[in-house]
């Protein structure tokens, strides 16, 4: 009797609230991206919509013609990047410094002419000419001259025959400047700094390439993250549609459709933000792209990144990189060039502690240069000469000793800096290698975690079909799987960034592109 009354009350209650339930069905049945359409009219005989789908598999690269690989990036960066071109100017600048230093050995030709005529008197008529040729050995200067000093009031000391006086001689330092002088010191230091300029060039290019690689893998991560979320949106929307259809035939609680639609909308919000992040990542990577005319270009929207290679860096490769870093790192090469320069400077400063003694000797010949024939007395002999000795010596040598002391202090500072830099570089290489090994272990564990999470999701879907689970749990399992996949892509991108850092800290590049 009670059961009959209960059934009647239930039927009366259901009939009173059936319009309300109809409105609820209409609201819950709306598509995820449209808010107006209602659900189809409830009909019997509708089949159940499947909720279990093959989803979140490994993302495969698309059309290979659209893949913008790391090698493509290297070709553009090393060929057209303004900073790379600017770095190439460092070598040209160093060569110009060497050329400038070689100017100290250029022959010099000089001439002067002075004449005074007053009151019918030829006071003086002076014409002096000299060709000076610096020689590398011993700081010697080879001199050739022709002088003509005539006139009433010419100093008898400098008077010459009317036909002039020719001379050929040498100037030789036998004290300070014999072993090394300012000209040779400047040239040798300029040559040493060529190596420093080349090291600077390599270092700047390596820095540009490291930043480009990091921006490339940031772009890769943004692409994968956006793709995963977009796939998650599609899956959630499919589940929402299936849940709504089940609710229409009375096989699903209407409130489950609300839960499914909230998940769709939440993932759509994430997808919108990730689209912005992807756009920005593409713009940042485009900062490194220039054409051969020096005009900036942008990465096409259809371009996709290559898949990570994830090559394991072996111990043998680590040892090779460590040895290279300890011997050929640009920072160490620059310091070695500086030490070489300071060594030359120290040798020159020691030379300056010696007394300055210059010997000069010139063989003279009188000749008539206004006639085509050479007179018989045009002859250089031991009876016609000029000799001279110049001597100077600072008694306390304070300036010279101070400069020498300062140079020696710089040598010690640079030596200590090189020792510390070498150890820091090797330590940094090993540190980044340890980071790579840690990423390898994390990636292996992450792959296992993702596989287990897929099993959990599939099991949850099966339990749902048996009525033992809820839409909330399914969405939670799927969201967790998406998060794990995003973290996996983040680990892959960070692994490639650390791999580029390993080669950078070793003083080289993972992609050389012929440079």
TrEMBL record:
Residues 1-34 form the signal peptide. It is found in: Cell outer membrane. Gene3D superfamilies: Outer membrane efflux proteins (OEP). Keywords: Cell outer membrane, Membrane, Signal, Transmembrane, Transmembrane beta strand, Transport. InterPro entries: OMP_efflux (IPR003423), TolC-like (IPR051906). The keyword Signal applies. Its main location: membrane. Belongs to the outer membrane factor (OMF) (TC 1.B.17) family. This is TolC family protein. It comes from Hymenobacter monticola.
């Amino acid at each position: 009797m009670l059961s009959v009354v209960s059934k009647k009350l239930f039927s009366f209650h259901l009939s009173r609230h059936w319009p309300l339930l109809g409105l609820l069905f209409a609201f819950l049945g709306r598509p995820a991206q449209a808010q107006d359409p209602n659900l189809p009219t409830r009909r019997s005989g509708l089949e159940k919509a499947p909720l279990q789908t093959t989803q979140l598999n490994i993302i495969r690269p698309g059309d290979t013609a659209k893949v913008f690989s790391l090698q493509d990036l290297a070709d553009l960066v090393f060929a057209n990047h303004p900073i790379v071109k600017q770095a190439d100017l460092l070598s040209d600048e160093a060569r110009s410094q060497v050329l400038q230093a070689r100017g100290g050995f250029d022959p010099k030709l000089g001439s002067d002419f002075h004449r005074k005529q007053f009151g019918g008197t030829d006071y003086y008529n002076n014409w002096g000419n000299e060709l000076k040729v610096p020689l590398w050995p011993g700081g010697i200067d080879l001199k050739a001259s022709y002088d003509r000093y005539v006139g009433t009031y010419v100093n008898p000391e400098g008077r010459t025959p009317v036909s002039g006086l020719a001379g050929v001689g040498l100037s030789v330092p036998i004290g300070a400047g014999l072993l090394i002088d300012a000209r040779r010191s400047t040239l040798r230091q300029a040559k040493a700094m060529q190596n420093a300029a080349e090291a600077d060039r390599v270092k700047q290019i390596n820095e540009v390439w490291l930043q480009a690689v990091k921006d490339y893998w940031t772009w890769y991560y943004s692409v994968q993250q956006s793709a995963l979320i977009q796939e998650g949106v599609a899956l959630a929307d499919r589940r929402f549609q299936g849940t709504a259809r089940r609710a229409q035939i009375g096989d699903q609680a209407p409130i489950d459709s609300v839960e499914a639609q909230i998940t769709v909308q939440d993932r759509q919000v994430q997808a919108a933000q990730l689209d912005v992040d992807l756009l920005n990542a593409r713009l940042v990577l485009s900062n490194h792209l220039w054409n051969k005319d020096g005009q900036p270009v942008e990465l096409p929207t259809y371009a996709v990144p290559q898949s990570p290679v994830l090559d394991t860096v072996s111990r043998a490769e680590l040892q090779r990189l460590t040895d290279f870093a300890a011997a050929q790192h640009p920072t160490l090469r620059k310091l070695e060039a500086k030490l070489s320069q300071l060594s030359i400077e120290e040798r020159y400063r020691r030379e300056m502690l010696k007394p300055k003694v210059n010997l000069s000797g010139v063989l003279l010949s009188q000749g008539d240069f206004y006639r085509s024939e050479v007179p018989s007395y045009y002859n250089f002999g031991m009876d016609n000469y000029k000799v001279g000795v110049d001597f100077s010596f600072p008694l306390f040598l304070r300036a010279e000793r101070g400069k020498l002391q300062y140079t020696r202090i710089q040598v010690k500072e640079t030596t200590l800096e090189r020792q510390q830099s070498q150890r820091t570089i090797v330590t940094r290489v090993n540190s980044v290698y340890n980071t790579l090994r840690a990423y390898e272990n994390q990636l292996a564990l992450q792959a296992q975690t993702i596989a287990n999470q897929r099993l959990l999701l599939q099991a949850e879907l099966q339990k749902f079909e048996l009525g033992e689970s809820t839409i909330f749990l399914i969405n939670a399992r799927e969201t967790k799987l998406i998060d794990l996949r995003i973290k996996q892509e983040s680990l892959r991108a960070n692994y490639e960034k650390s791999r580029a850092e390993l080669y950078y800290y070793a003083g080289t590049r993972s992609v050389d592109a012929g440079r």
